[in-house]
């Protein structure tokens, strides 16, 4: 079974940082993601709620700002609760494991803080094994170009 999602979009507002009663940081923000088609020439977008935890939550709160182009990798979670009227409410959101800031701090596309980090990958929102707080660490990126030639024989190609 697999539950992975990768989104690229722009923040609709600044992230909201809160802390649980036990002191764990949690950040919520919404990512506007364009749909791959137009409706009468107009682009449509989906507004996806994103949740990040712990160190990743604090990093997102410190450096993400409204309008900033961002990539989020994580998993979809559906939770439910009973509201004040006794009705069951379902919430679907993406729990972020990794966040990439896709614009440099000097691009004039959106308002951001002067101390924003350079473009990069920020992870650590998931507490399971194999995921850690790897702020600025791209060593586990299988698509990273290390400058070395790739030796592939014709037998390795599927076509």
Automatic annotation (TrEMBL):
Q: Which GO terms describe its molecular function?
A: single-stranded DNA binding
One GO cellular component term: nucleoid
Here the segments flagged for biased composition (Gly residues) are 121-133
Superkingdom, natural source: Bacteria
Motif, Important for interaction with partner proteins: chain positions: 154-159
Instruction: State whether keyword DNA damage applies.
Output: yes
User: Which keywords accompany this UniProt record?
Assistant: DNA damage, DNA recombination, DNA repair, DNA replication, DNA-binding
| Region Disordered, annotated ranges | 103-159
Does the record bear Signal in its keywords? no
Q: Which CDD domains match?
A: SSB_OBF (cd04496)
> Which Gene Ontology BP terms does the record give?
DNA recombination; DNA repair; DNA replication
Q: Which Pfam families match?
A: SSB
Q: Which PANTHER family match?
A: SINGLE-STRANDED DNA-BINDING PROTEIN (PTHR10302:SF27)
**What exactly does this protein do?**
Plays an important role in DNA replication, recombination and repair. Binds to ssDNA and to an array of partner proteins to recruit them to their sites of action during DNA metabolism.
Q: Describe the subunit structure.
A: Homotetramer.
Q: What is this protein called?
A: Single-stranded DNA-binding protein
